[in-house]
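README, section 4: Worked example with a bound small molecule

Sections 1 through 3 covered apo chains. Here we extend the same pipeline to holo records, where the ligand is supplied as SMILES alongside the sequence. The molecule in this example is flavin mononucleotide. Nothing else about the input changes; the structure line simply encodes the ligand pose together with the chain.
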Amino acid sequence: MNTTLQTPIQIGPYHLPNRLVMAPLTRMRAPDNLPTDLMVTYYAQRASAGLIVTEASPISTQGVGYPATPCIYNDAQVAGWKKVTEAVHEKKGHIFLQLWHVGRISHPDFHEGALPVAPSAIAPKGDAVTPTGMQPFVTPRALETDEIQGIVEDYRNAAKNALAVGFDGVEIHSANGYLLDEFLRDGTNKRTDSYGGTFENRARIVLEVTAAVVAVWGAERVGIRLSPSGTFNDMTDSDPETFFVYLLGQLNRFGLAYLHVVDALEGDIRHGANVINLDVLRKAYNGTLIVCGGYDQARAEDVIAQGEADLVAFGQLYIANPDLVERFKLNAPLNEPDATTFYGGNEKGYTDYPAFTD
Ligand SMILES: Cc1cc2nc3c(=O)[nH]c(=O)nc-3n(C[C@H](O)[C@H](O)[C@H](O)COP(=O)(O)O)c2cc1C
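The generated complex, written as structure tokens:
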């Protein structure tokens, strides 16, 4: 029988009823960095997804770079997230927390005037989203070599907190131009210590973070997200294909729950991305592969039927369609996402998208 989006799949210890993943989606509706009851409703509405990956959750105050993002470094945040996982589990869903450090994609206003940190002191082009509106990015401070272990420990602590919350697993956010991705790429990593230069050195922090998180959770409950062709947040790389094939070879050793790849998006192609074909990544990686980036139902079914990926994550479609699984089953029409309510605000454009059967 053909494999489809509705074919169940085993990920680590979990039997997922379908292959639709709710992609991680920052929605900036967590005042004081605390998960809210509205977030509980939002995630519970989407619990029929085979897997939910939460919005990115900062692992430390240093890891924050947007207003109202729900963090995972203190007890109050743990208590808030607990209600989210309970509500999703009540509906038999599965939910992984995405662990985040924004690196240079931040602003001193989040850090009592201190500079954001990065592998090297190179400012991204563009503006930071701050509590008082958009402000130009500043040049970040390059991390000292001896600070890096502290960041690995922040990931470990956040992973422990996520375990205490009752998540089903965690996803390491190593995509989209945030701290870990900044170490991976030679456009943002000009270091001359053991965290820069060679492939081995550029991959080091990601592999150390992965080892730390795996030590807390076991590999079968840890995923990692990469965007090898991405240019978002002003990312560049001289030879991403060779590097990412190397990195996947290193990640293979862990036996992780999954690798989550963000395909090149239209914006990346416009910005001259070095697009890496999915089949190159598929060949280089031995485990379960989730793909994401501009998929509709037809393209997603195709990629699954061809065996090019094992699951497909949907971002904007999940914002607008809490019952995406059921709509796909019925070939029902889809709600259109409203980009003006993606970031910040209240229930409008968040929990008020109707299910098809409403
Ligand atoms: C509003 C919004 C917020 C996002 N937040 C995150 C995030 O927190 N973490 C992440 O890895 N990607 C994030 N992304 C990227 C999505 O996970 C996804 O890769 C992207 O939307 C492409 O998939 P799509 O075409 O199905 O929407 C975000 C995208 C959008 C539109």
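What to look for in the output: Residues 46 and 322 are 5 Å apart (CA to CA). The two ends are 33 Å apart (CA to CA).

Section 5 describes how to batch many such records.
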